Amino acid sequence: MDRDNGPRVRVPEQRAPEKPVTADALRFTVLGPVRAWRGSELLSSGSPQQRALLAALLLREGRTATAGELIDAFWGEDPPSQALATIRTYASRLRKILGQDTLVSESGGYAIRTDRTALDLTLAQDLAAEAEKARAAGDRAQARTLTNKVLGLWDGEALASVPGPYADNQRTRLEEWRLQLTEARLDLDLEVGCHAEAVSELTALTAAHPLRERLRELLMVALYRSGRQAEALAVYADTRRLLAEELGVDPRPELAQLQQRILRADEELARPADEPAPAPAPLKPAQLPATVPDFTGRCAFVSELGSRLATAGSSVMAVSAVAGIGGVGKTTLAVHVAHQARRHFPDGQLYVDLQGAGARAAEPETVLGSFLRALGTADSAIPDTLDERAALYRSTLDGRRILILLDNAHDAAQIRPLLPGTPGCAALVTSRVRMVDLAGAHLVDLDVMSPEEALQLFTRIVGAERVGAEREAALDVVAACGFLPLAIRIAASRLAARRTWTVSVLAAKLADERRRLDELQAGDLAVKATFELGYGQLEPAQARAFRLLGLADGPDISLAAAAALLDLDPHVAEDLLEALVDTSLVESAAPGRYRYHDLVRLYARACAERDEQPPVERELALSRLLDFYLATAAGVYALERPGDRLVDHLARVDQPGLVFERRGPALDWIHAEAECILACAHQSTDSASLRRAADLLLAAKDLPESGANSRRYELAAQAVLSAAVRTGDVHTEGRARTALTNVFHFAGRFDEAEEEAEKAMALSEADEDPIPGGYAANTRGFIAVYQGRYAEAEKYLQVAIASFRNDDNWPSEASALCNLSRAQLAMGRTDSAVTLARQGVDIYDRQGLSLRLANGRYALGIALTQAGDLTDALTQLSDALDIFHESRQPLWEGMTHFRLAELHLLAGRPTQAAAHAEQAIALRGIGGEWRRATVLTVLGKALKLLGQVDRGHACWVEALTIFENHGSQEAAEVRGLLSPLDADQRRR
């Protein structure tokens, strides 16, 4: 972070040309300090005047400069009497450094002879030309990449500290070119959909170059596409007033036309150009799973569905819903039809497994987030609520031809937000239930295969030779499978993998009623009989693994977690899992990760209930998994927070977890396993596991703090809380309420957090558990600070400090001290606030904490800002920002940008203040919409100082609306800010 000039510009770091060079090759730079290298050695280029000669020769790109031209370049119209001798002296010195073959004398002048790629300026010119060609060819992504490379070659001011009129003129020229390149790159940013990210940089640039209308135009477009229409119009009003006051002119016609388009809410303006967004997600998704090479039959259905999809362009919400029992081939049919219809949807295809047959179906808002990313929407532009995401999704699809395959839907309510709303797009849905309540949908009921189709599928997998020799036996096999495609495929695959079996052997096995369940003829249980066939062929150890692994909730399971659940060495567990993958009963989701198809998981659980003896083995397996997650999460917590006593108060476990030596891999693990951890906690609500489930949530408290998986965390905590209340477990209830306090606090749901914290503290007194007593009291004090209840905050935080001291919990004491600093600051006790924050930072330093040290520096930075020590405050907040970024804490990053915006505003640096405020809005922060309003208030102040009065007014209007909706006391301040502006606007 640049501590003087605000957030870094989003271009790559400059430095030497990318072309490989020999060990002694010369390289030069003028886009920054004038420097020369030989290989990796930086050469001394002498005095400023000697560097001026080097720069003058380099900028001529190999052409000879006469002595007279060089004298003019150095001294203009008033050279000294010894000017020529001075030039010769400098040239002689440079020749000794560079070599006679490089600096040559000819025709009474001098020239530098070197390869074109040896100078950063010529390299920049070549890259810029390539960028222009790429843009002209329609390859915006490549043009953007190349332009970024050009800008990355700058290292500060061109020709830095080089004297002379020639250098001054060239410096001005190069700076103008740099600005033009920046405008071009920002224009490309908008064309590829990175408008939200561009706002911060454009805000800073318009402040630095207030009369440059092109930058204002780009800022208006970026704001409009970010959903900030009022601010976009305010930029125009500010520009018109500034041009009238400074130059006595009106905005150029293009700017006025843009204002009219924004007033009309022009839909074309709201859409970026149809160019794929940069990584991580392309604008043209191709997410369809692979179709099976042996797809068989279903000709009528393929034709019917294909015809519907081919005519999607003439109808709104062209939806076809395929229903049928599990295993009937809905997904296979839908994927096959979708692949055949791809040519009708040139803008891409989206796919999702909605897990409708599982215990917890996929949440529509989660799916929409994934779809929006696949369509090129940046994370910072994805809204929080389901309705907002659905609206943005439909807007993103508008004008495109995209096919959406919604597989394994639970019901119509789940898929309605996922449906396109304009002609050109189509949705293909599969579900175990008929979507009779889905208005306008074309319903298809998929039945089992005909005997002929079933035999054809069986033959394609097993081979014509083996089936032809035993046709009757093959008919018996497909009949025993109930003509279900999934059952036929599994049975045929088993036979194909066993060359010593005949078809008759397989038919005899299926004829045994003990192996073919009576339910084979009814509903979903038909699939169970098919799975029984594969399950019956497993070795005992494989069968045990299959049964027990199916008990675990979560989207998949890692090898380490599976080994813990099975109580096996990881190598042994891996052999078993890979054997199950070979039998098609388990899928390999990724290297070292495994998952069940949802119906297979249900079958595995039925097998566990039936076959696992004694029955307590099921509970023990899940208990080992819970132990594994708790032990590993506790280790990660201890590594992240050395000295924090929380881990010493967690339930003891019998199963070891993974051990990490470094923070990076530990953080990778906690975030990669988030869904599995929370699913395990959610599932572990029996009396024997309940306390460990609550402790697992506390050990994984970084998940909601990072802003990830907050909803899943909340659901798990609610499940644990409900079970604790139901069983009268006061200890677990207190900890579950502490976990809920945590997630509500970071989501900005302060009233709910306060309620849970109050109950947790009361339970702590009854149970004498230091965890709720300290942590809930600390959070309660933190909330009271936010809500302006400073005396209450001081009381709660003193309780927290006492609790942590009694427990020798130094890092948590430091947290409470920093929070108390905030309360003291609000009550005007600045010196006390600084002292308390320094005490907290000192504790964090002694304990060797990293992330928590960032929290301490954050609090100290706020206190120092109010104390007027802005230099030290800037250092503290900048250090905190770097640590938060490294620790993957975007909410805290957003908070720190907000505090830096306040600091720069106080220091009279509105440009930097506005840039940091924009970063805070993009990253969001702790406190939800309330926090957004506080940032908008600061942004409005900065914009007013920059002369962008109307845009600042728009920020304050939005902030006031949010504060009033929340009943926040900050509304009074914003009304005071708006009153003079409203009066001034009425006069105008």
Please specify the SSE layout and strand pairing.
Layout: E1 26-29, E2 35-38, E3 41-43, H1 48-58, E4 65-66, H2 67-75, H3 83-98, E5 103-106, E6 109-112, H4 120-136, H5 140-152, H6 165-191, H7 195-208, H8 213-225, H9 229-246, H10 253-263, H11 267-270, H12 299-310, E7 318-323, H13 330-340, E8 349-353, H14 364-374, H15 386-397, E9 403-409, H16 412-415, E10 426-431, E11 442-445, H17 451-462, H18 464-469, H19 471-480, H20 485-496, H21 503-511, H22 525-536, H23 540-549, E12 557-558, H24 559-566, H25 570-582, E13 587-590, E14 593-595, H26 598-611, H27 616-640, H28 663-672, H29 674-683, H30 690-699, H31 702-705, H32 710-727, H33 730-746, H34 750-767, H35 770-786, H36 790-806, H37 810-826, H38 830-847, H39 851-867, H40 870-886, H41 890-906, H42 910-923, H43 928-945, H44 949-966, H45 971-987
Parallel strand pairs: 7-10, 7-11, 8-9, 9-10
Antiparallel strand pairs: 1-2, 2-3, 4-6, 5-6, 12-14, 13-14
Helix pairs in contact: 1-3, 4-5, 5-6, 6-7, 6-8, 7-8, 7-42, 8-9, 8-10, 9-10, 9-44, 12-13, 14-15, 17-19, 17-20, 19-21, 20-22, 23-25, 23-26, 24-25, 24-27, 27-28, 27-30, 29-30, 29-32, 30-32, 30-33, 32-33, 33-34, 33-35, 34-35, 35-36, 35-37, 36-37, 37-38, 37-39, 38-39, 39-40, 39-41, 40-41, ...
Structure description:
- By secondary structure, the protein is mainly alpha-helical.
- The chain contains 45 helices and 14 strands.
- Helix 8 (213-225) packs parallel to helix 10, helix 29 (674-683) packs parallel to helix 32 (710-727) and helix 33 packs parallel to helix 35.
- The protein is globular.
